[in-house]
Amino acid sequence: MVARIFRPARNAMQSGVAKTKHWVLEFEPERPRSIDPLMGYTTSTDMHSQIRLSFETKEEAVAYAEREGIPYQVFEPHDPARKKIAYSDNFAFRRVGQWTH
């Protein structure tokens, strides 16, 4: 029963960084999922896979895992490197290539 502590990435439908500032503690699956032969649903007998805890900081999540005796792994986030550009850079003389269609 190993837990993962990570900061979730934004989804594909999201352009901002909302709901990505908190840290999440999830348990790794212990058993594989199976397919229900009658209905075709994907089922699991692993009850820990339903637990997802949110924390404000990484330190809070680590402290909780240590206090409860849960082995854990911390995955650091990969923040994108953003460069600041201005609208006027589209029309600069140093621009390489055409800016028209």
Characterise this structure.
The protein has one helix at residues 58-68; strands at residues 3-6, 23-27, 34-35, 42-43, 52-55, 72-75. By secondary structure, it is an alpha+beta fold. The protein has a single domain (3-78), classed as atu1810 like domain (Double Stranded RNA Binding Domain, 2-Layer Sandwich). The chain has a four-stranded mixed sheet, with helices on one face. A two-stranded antiparallel ribbon has the order 3-4. Strand 3 (34-35) and strand 4 (42-43) form a beta hairpin.
Summarize the structure.
This protein is α+β, with helices and mostly antiparallel strands and 101 residues long.
Task: Supply database-style keywords.
101 residues; alpha+beta; Double Stranded RNA Binding Domain
- DSSP helix count? 1
Shape: elongated
Q: In the CATH scheme, what's the topology name?
A: Double Stranded RNA Binding Domain
What would CATH call the architecture? 2-Layer Sandwich
Approximate strand percentage: 15-25%
In whole angstroms, how far apart are the ends? 57 Å
> Structural class from helices and strands?
alpha+beta
- Kindly give the count of domains: 1
Rg for CA atoms: 22 Å
State the order of secondary-structure elements, H for helix, E for strand. Answer: EEEEEHE
Helix content: 10-25%
Number of strands: 6
Lateral arrangement of strands in the main beta sheet: 5-2-1-6
CATH superfamily heading:
atu1810 like domain
Q: Just give the CATH class.
A: Alpha Beta
Largest sheet: 4 strands, mixed
Low-confidence stretches: none
Provide the residue-averaged pLDDT. 86
